[in-house]
Amino acid sequence: MLEHHANIVPWQQLAAEKGARLRVAPVDNSGQIILEEYEKLLGPRTRIVSVSQVSNALGTITPVKEMIEMAHRHGARVLVDGAQSVAHMATDVQALDCDFFVFSGHKIFAPTGVGVVFGKSDLLEEMPPWQGGGNMIIDVTFEKTIYNVPPARFEAGTGTIADAVGLGAALDYLDEIGMENISRHEHELVQYGTAQLLTVPGLRLIGTANERAGVFSLVLDTLPPEEVGKALDQEGIAVRAGHHCAQPILRRFGVEKTVRPSLALYNTREDIDTLVAALQRIQAGAVHAESKLGRSWEDSSSFDLPSEAMPRKRECRHGLANSLNTQLELGPRVGDAKALPFGIALRHATGRSAEHGQIASDLCRILQSGFK
Ligand SMILES: Cc1ncc(COP(=O)(O)O)c(C=O)c1O
After folding, report:
1. What value does the mean pLDDT take over residues 320-332?
2. Using CA positions, which residue lies closest to atom 12 of ligand 1?
3. Which residues form the pocket of ligand 1, taking CB atoms under 6 Å from any ligand atom?
4. Is the dihedral of CA 139, 141, 146, 147 positive or negative?
5. What is the dihedral of CA 60, 65, 66, 68, to 10 degrees?
């Protein structure tokens, strides 16, 4: 259930091809896998379990060691998706006893387009190549090709050499700092950040499992995640706002999108304080703007202003924001996040109901008075 789409879609494709059935391990309200329920899904027909060690959407650290033991008791193989764990904790595939372990280079500060697939050697020996070409052979005649031994068997063609060099450098860099040190530092930040974020009024943290790494997933009760993301951007804070390629798990918590600040070895407590202070300002600004407009937040995916306002929209973006700041008396309360009231007002102007029509004309009046 916690999986990134990258650990869902390929299995759906394979299941469609082979006639297999996907079964999904549920999570509890903290975003942790329910081990007893997971075990009930295992049976003699279970061929493979595929699970993330850390959820990219919630940060949950899953109990992969126990899950692997359970799967092996039922004769199933296990693939661990380590895309979000490798940069945050030490990885020991032998201690885990996983059959496969995969991660992408760009998750550990290496270039994109390169990654790692670990497989137990007896399994790799049994597996046919998945692509043909140079390097993956021992001998070729027109009658017959003898394939190379693993891993060369699986690496047809010329590899992405520069990226692999970058990946090696990134791994050396992390090794030098020490994954235990990184993990300790980030664990402390997650604890601190969780406590601080929960002081922001109207903030809901999605994913509250005891064991978490790397990210906070949150929503504010005033503004949709995209608006919060834009407002944070205005404050110089980069976050991802959206579904994080993990729609099933967000829907499990009744949301389509969240704001996701993420942590790495270079972050500090001061970064968290800056984030929390910005969220406090954004939330206060949004509440204030809503009370000035006299209407609560209405989400709408369309972004069309009433026709009178259209020509001014692009032309006067900053002016509009200033004008709205003045009109709504937001001023410096939201720092320099001028896009915030602008965004709110625009969103209020969307939709076609009578009430929205009224909001739109209010907005036009505000805009016009600001641009005489
Ligand atoms: C947990 C997890 N698995 C898989 C992926 C997919 O990685 P890539 O885009 O390199 O295939 C990601 C990327 O965000 C991820 O977070």
Report:
1. 50
2. 83
3. 4, 6-7, 52, 56, 81, 83-84, 104, 245
4. positive
5. 110
Residue 364 annotated to the active site: no
SS3 205: strand
pLDDT of 354 > 80? The answer is: no
Nearest to 204 by CA among 188, 225, 184: 225
Residues 49-95 have pLDDT tens digits of: 999 999 999 999 999 999 999 999 999 999 999 999 999 999 999 99
Residue tagged 């907005």 (tokens): 363
Q: pTM for the full model?
A: 0.83
Cα dihedral 118, 124, 128, 134, rounded to 10, equals 60
Distance CA 168, CA 215 (A): 25
CA contacts within 13 A on the Cβ side of 291: 7
Tell me, in angstroms, the distance from the centre of ligand 1 to residue 83's CA: 6
**What count of residues does the chain have?**
372
Under 8 Å CB-to-CB from 2, ≥6 apart: which residues?
Answer: 27, 31, 33, 51, 52, 55, 57, 58, 60, 62, 246, 249
